TrEMBL record:
GO terms for biological process: arabinan catabolic process; xylan catabolic process. The keyword RNA-binding does not apply. The keyword Transferase does not apply. Belongs to the glycosyl hydrolase 3 family. PANTHER family: BETA-D-XYLOSIDASE 5-RELATED, SUGAR HYDROLASE-RELATED. Pfam families: Fn3-like, Glyco_hydro_3, Glyco_hydro_3_C. InterPro entries: BXL (IPR044993), Fn3-like (IPR026891), GH (IPR017853), Glyco_hydro_3_C (IPR002772), Glyco_hydro_3_C_sf (IPR036881), Glyco_hydro_3_N (IPR001764), Glyco_hydro_3_N_sf (IPR036962), Ig-like_fold (IPR013783). GO terms for molecular function: alpha-L-arabinofuranosidase activity; xylan 1,4-beta-xylosidase activity. It comes from Cladocopium goreaui. This is Probable exo-1,4-beta-xylosidase bxlB (1,4-beta-D-xylan xylohydrolase bxlB) (Beta-xylosidase bxlB) (Xylobiase bxlB).
Amino acid sequence: MSRLSLEEKIQQITPDGSIGGTCTTFTTGKPDIGLPPWLWLVETNTGVDSACPAENHCVTNFVGPQGMAASFNRTSWHLKGYVLGTEQRALSNIGASRFHQDHKNPVCLTAFGPNINIVRDPRFGRNSELASEDPFLSGTYAAQMVSGMQQRDEKGYKKTAAYLKHYTAYSTEANRGHDTYNISQYDFFDTYLAQYKLAFTAQPTGVMCSYNAENGHPSCANEFILNQQLRSWKPDAHVTIDCGAVNNLKGPPVNAPDDAHAAAMALMNGTDLEMGDTLFTSLSQAIDMGLATKQRLEEAVRRSFKVHFELGRFDPANATTWAKYGLADVNHSMHQQISYEAALQSLVLLKNEKALPIKEGTSIAVVGPHSISRSQLFSDYAAGSHCFDGTDACVPTLAEGIAAANQGGSVSAAMGVEINSNKTDGIAAALDLVRKSDFVVLALGDDKTIETEGHDRVDTALPGLQESFAKQVLGLEKPTVLVLVSGGPMAIDGILAYQGKKEGSAGFAIIQAFFPSHKGAQALGQTLFGNENRWGKLPITMYPHHYISEQAMTNYDMSFPPGRTYKYYQGKPLFPFGFGLSLTSFDFNCSKAGEENPTLEYTFQCKLHNTGNLDGEEVVQAYHSAVDIGKVDHTLPKRALRDFKRVAVRAGQKATVTFTLSSKQLELVNKVGSQTLYPGVHAIILSRGHAEDEQKFTIKIEGEDITFLDDNLRITRGGDGSLFVLEKEGDTGPASQLRNRLLQEQGEAVSQGAGAIRWISRLGV
């Protein structure tokens, strides 16, 4: 730092447009001290965004994040992070480039992913980048993935540096960068911050702040979300700006008058590194004007360089264990298998009426616009290069994956209709294939022409002529499986109603495949024939079509009628969060294992009996619901996911799943955003996603409300209106400082035995 002038310090946190695009964000070097430039932005959400460095060594891509979340499998998420981190380090070691035949954009080690905004609205254009509508599921997914990406060697060097996106409350593309949404303290802490706080238990390097504003304060210049919240989870969290967001500050909602004011707003409110523009070059002017300080500038530079030190950038190449990775580690056979396993567990069976499994040797027609898709099978922010020759020819189509699994049978394919057009010239040929076949796979959905960055969906129904084409196919009375390939949930009301009216119809099944990626065709083929039976559960709610006429995209109040996500939606979904079938059958029975222990922990055991003929896997989910806690002055979720476990059970065998939940799982967010344990009747609901066999257990909490100001400090209100304070023994942070101040004013400390909690007696406040 002492060898950098003020201008050189500014250069370290500002893109240098002369050596690369400002969005990829090169920061200039300083040759006289041996400091080369650094490319910051490497998208690492579904695959490392890199050109293919050699034949058979294009990067490993994974099924889209919703498909990953559908597995409810922590191990799979950790392994995904391991694969992405390993391949990014290997690509960096060999000098690979982000873009084909462009060596001016090397793959460096700052990894931007996972993206964990919630799937708030089914129309959001970037839903394919996101994991789930549930903060607990999304945050757990992110924590596991980050721990794999940031694996440390024996000397403490990180494999890569992971950045979460897009912090926070980003789920509308229209007018992004100049939009602002009213968000209550309740919704902040129950929905829009919760997944990030949970993800930071794995200590990611930092975040990319989002384009949108909350309550008039743009995310990238928002003291509340950056300094007060984010840096309470990690004091040195590194904050980078989404491409061009500093320049956006010169427009609504804050209308900064010039570059210096915009740059100072971002820097002084918590942003460390600019991306997409070079307004930070005006920071010296902002400092002269008294808008920014040298101290804050140096803090941003130090945070930025700490990232490099943790990666081993300034040490000899062989100083870190990760130097061993090379070309052979890119798309390694083990990585391919991990991706394939994830794809198998991503498929969700929504309906199966005497259709699956298909018998091998059957003649099958695969029709619909996704029957022969290749690059359209990938979510946003998959790697840009799928095949070494620059095409997508090496990506198997769904028809090819089904053909490979259909031993002794025949498979024919035709689109019939396009994703989104009124062209009818392919329908007759496709229907002719259906007539000549014994079984039909109907592959429908959308692609990046319908939903993508910068483009929200207008409608959640199947676009173009797909629904009418589907009805024509179903009208031919052949056993059919509908495979939905999409980023956001599709409203298939019309198809369900049409099929429901038919009497004595042929077999019918529905599979949600999300964007299944490179291994999706193989996984689907093996699963359709019952060679694999490893289904997932929905990580989202599939809403009826009329939902979009009842909810404005710009409404960010989660409980505003009819409500958003399974926690608040009051209507009847097409298929609910957590739902999913199997090709085998399970008996499900749960019990409470004894009474709660003195630390207020509750143990439940669920026994699963695979009563079918196939080995299978099941996901058991634990939810909390407030049954009767009296009158409260804020929203209550219908239920909230608290834990989950995935288990494999062989045909005819039994397995036991155990949950140990503490009183923390009974807490609710109150009106001002604090965690509160309310006295009264609570319930733990144990489910495998089927309402008919859910198990519900009630728990009664005695005493007063307990409000959790943070993990170390709790305030309890007594029946006479006085307050008690509880704190963890030995805490020296803000909680302890508040305790000391309260004691000085009006309290008396009283030890509560040898436990970790002590009480501070009644405070007359």
